[in-house]
Each structure stands twice: as C-alpha cells, then as structure tokens.
Amino acid sequence: MLPNTGKLAGCTLFITGASRGIGKAIALKAAKDGANIVVAAKTAEPHPKLPGTIYTAAAEIEAAGGKALPCIVNVREEQQIINAVEKAVKTFGGIDILVNNASAISLTGTLETETKKVNLMMDVNVRGTYLTSKTCLPYLRKSKNPHILNLSPPMNMNPMWFKNHCAYTISKYGMSMCVLGMAEEFRGEVAVNALWPKTAIHTAAMDMLGGSGIEKQCRKTDILADAAYCILTKPKSFTGNFIIDEVLLREEGVKDFDVYAIAPGHPLMPDFFLDAEIDMTATKPESHGASQTFKEEKKSSESSTAPASGPVAETFRVIQGAISKEFVRSTQGVFQFELSGEEGGTWYIDLKTNDGSAGFGKPPVTADVVMSMSSGDFVKMFTGKLKPTMAFMSGKLKIKGNMALAIKLEKMLTQFNSKL
C-alpha cells in the first residue's frame, strides 16, 4: 500500500459518485490527510441492492480524519451540480481537486441497447463529466495545485472494444476526450489526467455484472485510491496523461500487489480497453478485418451436418452425459452456441425441458441465451482454460439474450470441468 504523505491536508476534493466503490475509496485515502471531501452523489436513501449513501460515506470520511459535505448530486442535472459547487465553496472556501468518478454502464450491442440506456450513459459519462468540470474550473484556477482526474480509459481504436458495447465505449472515450481537450486548454493552470485500472476492480457494480465469485478475479478499490492519491499530490505541470494504476504504482516503488488482490494468487481479469493485457495468441492478425470474420461466419452457417468427431463434438458428448435433473431444475435455461471455424455451426444445451439435452443443431425450444464465439475458444471455455467473463470482456464471446442466465453458465462450467 502507498503511505500517506499529508500533502492533501486542508485541500478540498469534489468527488462525483463518492457514496460507494472507487469514489469513496479515493475520498477515504484523502481523508487520512485531513482533506475536505464533497460527497457529490445521488444516493440519499439506501438502495435495495447497492450499499452506502452520501451520509454513510460522509460518516466514514469524518471517522478517517477528514471533513465531509454530503450533497445530493445527479450529474445529469446541471443545477444540482451548480448548487453543490456553490455550497462547497461557501463551506470550505474553494475547490482544489475534482474527481469525475460517476459513471453508467450497459454492456449491450447496438440493437439491444434501449434509447434510455444510451441517454443515461451519454448524460452521466460524457455530459456529466463535462458540466462538472466546467462548473468547478473557475474555482480550480484559483487553487495553488488544482487537479481534475477522470476515471476513464486510454483511447484504444481497436474495433473489438466497440463491437460488443458501442454506446458504452463511446461514452467512456467521451470522458477521455475531456482529458485531451481540457489538459491543453488549461495547461499551466489546472492539471487534467485520466486514471484506469489494469485489472477489474471489485465493486457492487462488478458483482451485478459478473455474479457471485467474480470478486476472486478482481482487485480492491484501494489500488485506484493509492494511484489517484499519487496523481493528485503531483504538481499541476503533470497533465494530459492516461495513467494505468499498476504501471504508475510500480514507478512509485510499490512491489507487493498481492495486498490489493481480493484473492491473492488467483488469476486476475484484465479491464476493458487494454489490448496488451489480453491473451491474443489464438487471434490471427487479420481477424480484426471484416473479411476473415465473414468467411468464418459463412463457413459455420453452411455447415448443416454434425461433425462426427473433434473437440467440440466430444465436449457436447460429455455435457450430454453430465446433464442431470438437478442441473435442469436449478438452471432453467436454454443455451444456443453459434460457433465459427473448425466444427462450426449451431450447437445447444437445453437445461429447461424434460430431462435436458445437448448436441448439434438448434435447440428444441427457443434459446434464452445465444452465444457466438470460435470453436477453439468454446473448447477452452468448457475445459476451464478461458473464463466466460474474460471471453466476454475481451470480445471473444458475444452474448445475446438473458444475461443473468449467461452468468449462471460460469457456475455450471465449474461442475462440468471435472468431467471434461
């Protein structure tokens, strides 16, 4: 862990989305120095599924040694931002640091993303970040060492980061574009940087996306708190950077990263938008182009007879033998697999009707979940060499339909793996 230096004592931080998760972790780290924290978040009443409110976060900040000002702020509402900023200045005398942490996510394809979800992501991620920065900047410019820090990724134009969740990617890159533009616009006056995790971070949002057990593949929010603290204590000349938490902390001399792991020694899931951290050995260089993908899809759609042998056929034989009434009763889902490459075609696992079944072709009833991937990755997934969550996040697996059932598949695989 990175020790505190006391450099943020007396500084005022305006943090959006600070009632829980990463925002609260950054607030608590600064509070240990005796900083003033504006908890700018929308949760005033307890949420049925998510822990924490602006008031419980404020209590934790005070207990850690800081001063807290809880403010009800939905960053979609400009007047709420303005009111909170004015209240912060009146209470603490100014604003030294803005952390744009509030974010909305929907990992859905273009046709599956409802307009209200598109609006939410654009309003919170892009517009909210822009308006909060705009409102704070006049006060930041008066500070001795002002910083804006956006929790957003380095912009990576690899199409795989767009194809599965185009709207979400655009919205997060919108936050990163604010860094690019504002860092230049206010160079010499206000530092503007972006921070992004190398691996998945365990938050309530991650639990909702990945289901139970996902936390073992994640790090604690502490790693981002330490990285943010390191950035915010640098001079304002440190600006326009897209920083990855682990890379920065290694440069700062941190050697033990097990302290940040939820389950030390367990493989970690790489975060979105970071190509270098993904095992691309099975992906040919030309597969980013349309022609290769089209050829593979065409080959799979033309295949109408079940392959007699091969890893995929063998996997389905084992699955068929492993299906039990208990599996069917507890799962209640039908999975369809659209596989490309060798042994390509449509395969299915029916864990809903009668005693269940698995094999080549379309399922006997309409599928609840349709998964598209290469046959090679399918075999890796069913033999435990590739986690479904990892496959999905890295673009190797495309999912349509019931996401809750898709998450159930990961649990089911652990039971199948011993037989494969």
From TrEMBL:
SUPFAM superfamilies: NAD(P)-binding Rossmann-fold domains (SSF51735), SCP-like (SSF55718)
Gene Ontology cellular-component annotations: mitochondrion; peroxisome
One Gene Ontology biological process: cholesterol homeostasis
Listed GO MF terms: oxidoreductase activity
Coiled-coil boundaries: none
Cellular compartments annotated: Mitochondrion; Peroxisome
InterPro entries: HSDL2, NAD(P)-bd_dom_sf, SCP2_sterol-bd_dom, SCP2_sterol-bd_dom_sf, SDR_fam
Keyword NAD in annotation: no
Residue span of region Disordered: 285-309
Keyword Mitochondrion: yes
Record domain SCP2: where: 324-413
Transmembrane segments: none
Keyword list, A-Z: Mitochondrion, NADP, Oxidoreductase, Peroxisome
Domain of life, per lineage: Eukaryota
UniProt xrefs under PANTHER family: HYDROXYSTEROID DEHYDROGENASE-LIKE PROTEIN 2
Family note: Belongs to the short-chain dehydrogenases/reductases (SDR) family.
The protein's name: Hydroxysteroid dehydrogenase-like protein 2
Upper classification of the organism: Eukaryota, Metazoa, Chordata, Craniata, Vertebrata
